[in-house]
Amino acid sequence: MSMRQADSAIRGYLYQFNKSIYEILQLADGAEITLEGVIEDIDIQSLSSTTTIQCKYHEDKKFKISDVAAPILEMFSHYCECNALGKSVSYILYAYYVDNPNSIDIDSILGFLSTTKDKDIQTKYFHRIYTIPDEGVLNLALKSQKSKDEKQTLFDYYTNNREKLVLKVPIRNFWNKFTYIPAEQFDVLQQAVIKEFSTIVDEDTAKNLYYPNAFSYVAHLSAKENVADRIVSKTTMLSYLSEQRSVLLSKWTLAAMDRSKVLKDKKEYLSGSFAGNTGIRAFVFSDAFLELNKMQILPFLLEYLGKYFKKPKLQQQPIFIFGSGHTALQQSVILGLYQYQKKVNTGMVGSSFVEDTFVNSTDCSPDYVCKIASEKDITVNILEKCHVNQFYIVGKARETFNSPCYFVETLDVENINSLKYLIGLVKKLEV
Known about the structure:
Elements: H1 8-25, E1 32-35, E2 42-45, E3 50-62, H2 65-85, E4 90-98, H3 106-115, H4 119-129, E5 130-131, H5 135-141, H6 148-161, E6 166-167, H7 171-175, E7 178-182, H8 186-198, H9 203-222, E8 231-232, H10 234-243, H11 251-256, H12 259-271, E9 280-285, H13 287-293, H14 297-308, E10 319-322, H15 327-339, E11 344-345, E12 348-349, E13 352-353, H16 355-360, E14 370-374, H17 380-385, E15 388-394, E16 407-411, H18 416-422
Parallel strand pairs: 3-4, 4-7, 9-10, 9-15, 10-14, 11-14, 15-16
Antiparallel strand pairs: 1-2, 1-8, 2-3, 5-6, 12-13
Helix pairs in contact: 1-8, 1-9, 2-4, 4-6, 8-9, 9-10
């Protein structure tokens, strides 16, 4: 998939992840980056300073000052707050537009502030950058949630008092800390990132392993809820990448890279795991994956059992774990398998999940073909007791289930046909 084939929101995220990777690779020893920082996409903390970077990427949009006003005002608002606390922060707006300017003139922002009629801009930022002498209006402006009438009240106040409003901090003070950098086109930045990795590992590894896995790594960290979990250094990222032996599948990797090639390479890597009569494989299907593929889950299990459990004396029963939000689908699949004369160990005794029943297959038919359970009932300890040696996370599961006792692979695909291709149930990838 090319960048043009992805929608504008996806393009923006992909570009941001690329820029994040590049900035991580530029870090000095002891410096760290916070992904999706306090106010910006990237916060860089060195031993002596803090820099925040906001990324904007618009391949098909011409530059207008109104398009960058919001991120600049967010930065200016933060600057006013930091100034009151005696903190020093530098700000970078890193943006790509058609006919991109080399810089932004301070007068263009002042002109925007004095003439804008954008109600959202005024109600979100004006009380943060201007001194509001009317206590009632200030209290209204500080409300996190405002009604339509309350926004109109603020808008009317700003309209009638525009000339009386005084900035909390002279904007020129902020401008000395602000830099506008015209960004590179996506492919140029991508090649710059790969070139940086090529100074660490060979070019092939840089392009086909480190780069796509860095994408997954940064995307995963950026989605973390806690700020502390989104902090990364160059050393920690490179240490993580050096431990990976194949491309990590995620929707971001598949969007940014050649999807067919990524899936083909992954299939080849997994082929050894699905050859021969191996030990016990377990799959956990995320709720999101199940929701998208609910009608295909039963046929998939039948197809899987038909290929990978056709020799009961030689092959081990697999384990299938359903996301906790799909109990009804789980029960429907168990009933469907029963109708095909395929019995299941569910670990259930009456209405209760019993660990011993699930692990040791007591209280169930001796000729069961697989184990099926809900994600909420399964723990790493149970999987280890079941002697699982291959564990596959399909989509994004509630937990990672990591253990030194078995191999873990995340297959973050949305389409069940892609999953079938990856694990060798079909030879050709269906589009």
